[in-house]
């Protein structure tokens, strides 16, 4: 048996993927919402209606549509639409880097555990279990007590929490692949564990990791908003959706729209990424995909 000639799990480049994706309502809606998030952040680098760093107290708390402000102004006279656009940067930055840390480190640990087995696997999994005992918010609080609040500490805290999650997923998927016939054939042919991991195991769990990364991206946005709300994440004067909610809580009866707009932005972003992740799961899992 030629192990290298055996098929691997279907990837996004497979024929018919985009045709099936266009017929998947969850994937389409999630893709549109995720694209809107990316475009909002990209647009903020090129243009915003007003500067988010200038205070105009004579224009504070304007309702939507008044004074040339489409979504109104906050308690400092800053344009809410501009704050939302620039605030998308922090969400994407934290999500990409934090999930990237978890994906890279966690996948490496999970693959190592599956390849070595024995005491190495047991030790790595127990370390991951210990890491799960410290949620991102608790880790951020500990980092803040030592190094002070900031977006870097938020990224590190969320990234550390993602590592054991990806490690467990990668290890479970890798263990399943290691029991396949074509992997046994590769071992008989003389391939070492690292060559098998790179050539056979990793390609077959990539789809699972992509789906999980998309879902963890949504959770990272929620975590960043929560940390900024508590004052542990993005610091002034850099806008953040979580801090916009924190600043709006004292004005709920006077200007409730200040809490509505960032709340809607967070909700739509998380909804879009979750729908995108669910759609990718359906499209990339050969057991859920229709026969071509």
Summarize the structure.
The protein has 292 residues and is mainly alpha-helical. It has ten helices and no strands. It has helices spanning 17-22, 25-46, 80-116, 118-132, 136-147, 151-178, 181-188, 193-229, 241-248, 257-284.
Question: Rg from C-alpha positions?
Answer: 23 Å
Strand/helix succession:
HHHHHHHHHH
| Percent range for β-strand residues | under 5%
End-to-end distance? 26 Å
Main sheet summary = none
CATH superfamily: MetI-like
Under the CATH scheme, the architecture is Orthogonal Bundle
Mean pLDDT comes to: 88
The total number of structural domains is: 1
Number of strands: 0
CATH fold topology? MetI-like fold
Number of helices: 10
* Form type: elongated
- What low-confidence regions span 5 or more consecutive residues with pLDDT below 50? 1-14
Helix content: 55-70%
Provide the structure class.
mainly alpha
* The first-level CATH class name: Mainly Alpha
What does this structure look like?
With 292 residues, this protein is an all-alpha fold. The two termini are 26 Å apart. It has ten helices and no strands.
List the helices and strands and how they pair.
Layout lengths: L16 H6 L2 H22 L33 H37 L1 H15 L3 H12 L3 H28 L2 H8 L4 H37 L11 H8 L8 H28 L8
Which short descriptors sum up this protein?
10 helices, MetI-like fold, 292 residues
